[in-house]
Amino acid sequence: MKDTSMDTIKISAKDVQVYYADNHAIKDVNVDIADKTVTAFIGPSGCGKSTFLRCLNRMNDTIDICHVEGDILIDGEDIYDRRVDPVQLRAKVGMVFQKPNPFPKSIYDNVAYGPRIHGLARAKSDLDEIVEKSLRSAAIWDEVKNRLDAPGTGLSGGQQQRLCIARAVATAPEVLLMDEPCSALDPIATAQVEELIDELRQNFAVVIVTHSMQQAARVSQKTAFFHLGNLVEYGDTNQIFTKPSDPRTESYITGRIG
Amino acid sequence: MSNPLKTSLLTLDARTKKRNAAETRFRAYGIAAIGAGLAMLILLLVTIFGNGLGAFQQTFVTLNVPLLEEKLDKNGTRDLEKIKKVSTFGYAPLLKKAMEETLTEYGIETNLKSKKQAALLSKSAAAQLRNYVLANTDMIGETVEFTFLANARVDGYLKDRVTRESIANDKSINAAQLDMVDALLAAEVIEKRFNLSFITGADASDQRPEAAGMGVSMLGSFFMMLVVLALALPIGVAASIYLEEFAPKNWITDIIEVNISNLAAVPSIVFGILGLAVFINSVHLPQSAPLVGGLVLTLMTLPTIIISTRASLKSVPPSIRDAALGVGASKMQSVFHHVLPLAAPGIFTGTIIGLAQALGETAPLLLIGMIGFIASNAPDSVASGFLDPNSAMPAQIYEWAKRADPAFYERAWGGIIILLVFLITMNTIAVILRRRFERRW
Questions:
Q1: Which residues of chain A are within 8 Å of residue B249 when distances are taken between CB atoms?
Q2: How many CB contacts within 8 angstroms connect chain A with chain B?
């Protein structure tokens, strides 16, 4: 395995507050997310982990009543700066959603859509190459290489989710956000996706929201525990799961709250 | 030993019996309601087809007409300008003579005067003869076989609308003429058959119901539908996309939304008077023009299209929008590349239903005068465009229903059959589209 330089900071959040109308959903979150690392966000339902994740590629912009304060820097640049176009940002920060949501188009078009709209490929052969590379890096190439024209919605749940990962990877992002990517999958598909996440770490900073603490322990190097909109504890995954410093983290991990 | 609360499952308690009775009653109400509806529908269809199918058949008289040179071209010069000077009155003797000769040929005896004999023919017969002669001047002097429309009374007699009892006070026809019809019928000079010109022809004046057709008003309706489609579809879809995908949700958009829903319920005659005030009185567009009719119907159809388009946009799952935004598509790209194609079947279904509604609309057309009387037949009528006066199918039906001669009444029912065929076709297309392109996520 390539050396993972866990020291470079990719994303840096400072005093982030998120409001849904009057509801203060995220309170004073400060976190530094390292490059080439899998960072897991854990916490009980409604703790704000998904909300915070969606701030990182400004997906919350699509919700009218949502309002974000504070700074989120990617490579030192504030993504909430007036000059930043969220569309450009989202090409750099890819996202995989909870429910597999392939476009009702062919497998090829699903993956090729991103590169097409961003003009990443000049010729058809370039595009073919990107599609193959993305499908390979999502570990689904061998299963679909003979039926690239088949509809993406015809695949099984696990395959669909890996197709969505391929689609996110195809735009050559630097950060990959995953919002409970395995919650709709069976254990075998989950294992495949988890293995894939570990491989993706070599090229991207991966941020994953998960309900499963075992999953967080298996795939991540860093873990952040959210509770009631606060970032309670952030540190090495080993440390969080073995000797948490905050009593709330301990209660959650041992199953007393959440 | 026996517990009073313990009951057997094999016997129904009073409460269950009551509930079951209520359920049975409710089912009976439902079946009764559907039965009543079906009965009405059957009654409607039976009435429409019973009254209207006759309009598709017409009585024709086949005569050998001698095109006498001394009547049509006294000098024998075949000069078209001279021949044109002979009006339809000049052709009447030819028809009388043809009728007399036919009666003699088949040995039919009658004491009617020749004028009364020729009255069995439609009033359009002389014009038909004259048009033929003007187009074929070389045939003057020959005897040519013609098929003329029979008079509406004769037609009615063959369709049992006119009987020997009902003509007691009728000046247009008498018993002796009916005897003659019976004899000609036996000789197969008069026959009833399918009449294409009811579907393709133009309207005719009050004296010639037998010649009236729906063709020109179909054309008027067609032009109006083109205008509606060209305006209502793009405007309606654009408005819906903006309201559904781009507009901020605030009190202004709420008011707009409520008003669109209300507009869909505004009586169509209100749109008619709006069209009269705006398009004709203020903008001075021509009266009775399909363009104006189309504009008015566009206003009427827009709310329907907007509501159905918004509903089909709403039914596209938000995960598709997230997916598109997630790979860095702009809002517009996500709408046009992903949401709109998925909503398209719903949009087209809504549009077709809106068009079908507009096609059958009468009231606003009456206000803007879409009841132009166009008596020219194809191909002249086809050339009339968006700005020439025209009629529309439902307005034409209303016109016929209004006229005094019962022969027009039959044509009104026949017109309704044609209109229904159009509406059923459009609705079938809508259903097929919906079935065919329905997607499941």
A1: 64
A2: 66
Substitution target from B243, B320, B327, B332 for chain A, most A beta carbons within 10 A:
B327
φ, ψ of residue A247 to 5 degrees: the values are -60, -30
Pairing of strands A77-78, A66-74: antiparallel
The distance of B381 to chain A (nearest Cα, Å) reads: 47
pLDDT at residue number B5: 65
Which of B322, B329, B342 lies closest to A101 in CB terms? B322
pLDDT tens, position by position, A104-115: 999 999 999 999
Which pLDDT value is given to residue A5? 47
Compute the nearest-CA separation of A245 from chain B (Å). Answer: 35
Tokens coding A68: 């974000």
Q: B267-284, pLDDT tens digit by residue?
A: 999 999 999 999 989 988
Domains with residue ranges and CATH for chain A? 9-101+175-253 (3.40.50.300)
Average pLDDT over residues A77-105: 90
Over residues A156-163, the mean pLDDT reads: 90
Residue A128 contacts residue A115 (beta carbons within 8 Å): no
**CATH of region B215-437, choose from 3.50.50.60, 1.10.3720.10, 1.10.510.10, 3.40.190.10:** 1.10.3720.10
Cα(B155)–Cα(B134) distance, integer angstroms = 28
Helix, strand counts (H, E) of chain B: 20, 3
In one-letter notation, the amino acid at residue B82 is K
The domain ranges of chain B are 56-195, 215-437
Q: Find the closest chain A residue to B333 by CA distance.
A: A117
Q: Model-level pTM?
A: 0.81
What's the pLDDT score for residue B3? 59
Tens-digit pLDDT profile for residues A17-76? 999 888 898 899 999 999 999 999 998 888 888 899 999 999 888 888 888 999 999 998
Whether omega before B379 lies within 30 degrees of 0, making that bond cis, reads: yes
Query: What one-letter code names the amino acid at A216?
Result: A
d(CA A41, CA A18): 16
Residues 6 or more apart in contact with residue A119 via CB below 8 angstroms: none
Take residue B29 and report the two structure tokens written for it.
């109400």
ipTM of this complex prediction, to 2 decimal places: 0.86
State the average pLDDT over residues B87-97: 88
Locate A164 and state its tokens.
Answer: 């969505």
Residue of chain B nearest A111, judged by CA positions: B327
- φ, ψ (nearest 5 deg) of residue A68: -115, 135
User: Residues B314-332: what's their mean pLDDT?
Assistant: 91
Q: What is the pLDDT of residue A2?
A: 39
Q: What is the pLDDT of residue A3?
A: 42
Answer for the pair A40, A219: CB distance below 8 angstroms, yes or no.
Answer: yes
Are B49 and B57 in contact by the 8 Å Cβ rule? The answer is: no
Euclidean distance between CA atoms A28 and A26, whole angstroms? 7
Confidence of residue B2 (pLDDT cuts 50, 70, 90): low
CA dist., res. A55 & res. A90, Å (int): 11
Does B328 contact A88 at a Cβ distance shorter than 8 Å? Answer: yes
Query: CA of A118, closest CA in chain B: separation in Å?
Result: 8
CB atoms within 10 A of CB B186: 11
Tell me what pLDDT residue B382 has: 54
Cβ contacts (< 8 Å) between B253 and chain A: which residues?
none
